[in-house]
Specification:
The complex is a heterodimer of chains A (156) and B (105). With 156 residues, chain A is an alpha+beta fold. Chain A is built from 2 helices and 3 strands, in the order ααβββ. Chain A has a two-stranded antiparallel sheet with strand order 1-2. In chain A, strand 1 and strand 2 form a beta hairpin. The longest helix of chain A has 27 residues. Chain B has 4 helices and 4 strands, in the order αβαβαββα. Classes of the chains: A alpha+beta (156), B alpha+beta (105). The interface between A and B is large, with 46 and 66 residues.
């Protein structure tokens, strides 16, 4: 073997070493490939990969202390929002709730009917039986006394 | 409304009180017993009178709306008050104030 060949061989070897070294450096700096390279020793992986972080990176320290399914406090439901009381008074003038958009002609029990007989009209006469057991007629009082008619709601 | 306690005031003003409700006579009797009303408590079971005065079922609840009508001696309505809800009724004092002026005696 002549000297030229030796030099050439050495150069090729040096280049190879350099290339392989570069490849090594590149692969080690980049993320480890999913498929473990058979040429990469396990020891290198263990030293190269940092310690696996905990599954729940939460600051609360309960984990690991209790056994069983202890819900982390930060995952507990917050207190329910205060609901307005259900016993709020119902809407007044219940007829308004039933007011139709368009008036129903001849409708029964109109939601906003006349508010009773008008002042100045003749009071409708009637005869009703009362608790006292004696029928009472309104017109009996005519000319004698004023009458205060008090309508109670009654009991259904 | 506590009319019973003011009944003497009404009598002084020559005004009779007639209480009506859409109920049976038996119920009217119970009411009279419970309240001790000295004035007539009348039963309007078929709500005919409530209808005539336009106060039946105004609230859609199948009973008369609380209402007060003052009928003067000529048989005409002198004053009226129709409640807007089940608890809306005038006080006895209000009714007294709205009675027709008493004739000079």
């Amino acid at each position: 073997m002549n000297r030229t060949s030796i030099v050439l061989l050495a150069a090729i070897l040096a280049v190879l070493v350099i290339v392989v070294g570069l490849l090594f450096a590149i692969t080690r700096l980049a993320a480890p490939p999913p498929a473990p390279s058979p040429q990469v020793p396990t020891a290198d992986l263990a030293s190269a990969t940092p310690t696996r972080p905990p599954e729940v990176p939460s600051p609360q320290s309960g984990r690991g202390k209790d056994t069983g399914d202890v819900t982390p406090t930060h995952l507990l439901p917050i207190s329910p929002v205060q609901q307005p009381p259900d016993d709020a008074p119902p809407a007044p003038a219940g007829g308004q709730g039933f007011q139709p958009i368009s008036p129903i002609p001849g409708g029964e029990e109109a939601p906003q009917p006349e508010t009773g007989r008008a002042v100045g009209e003749e009071a409708p006469d009637f005869t009703l039986e009362g608790a006292q057991g004696v029928p009472v007629t309104l017109s009996d009082h005519r000319g004698q006394s004023d009458v205060v008619l008090v309508f109670y709601r009654g009991q259904t | 409304m506590d009319l019973q306690s003011h009944y003497p005031d009404f009598q002084d003003r020559n005004a009779e009180i007639l209480a009506l409700a859409v109920h049976e006579v038996a119920s009217a009797q119970r009411v009279a017993q419970v309240t001790g009303a000295a004035f007539p408590v009348l039963a309007d079971p078929d709500h005919a009178v409530a209808d005539a005065y336009g106060v039946y079922n105004l609230l859609g609840d199948g009973v008369a709306t609380p209402a007060v009508f003052i009928v003067d001696t000529s048989g005409r309505i002198h004053w009226s008050y129709v409640g807007q809800n089940a608890a809306d009724r005038p006080s006895a004092q209000t009714i007294l104030e709205n009675l027709p002026p008493s004739p000079a005696r």
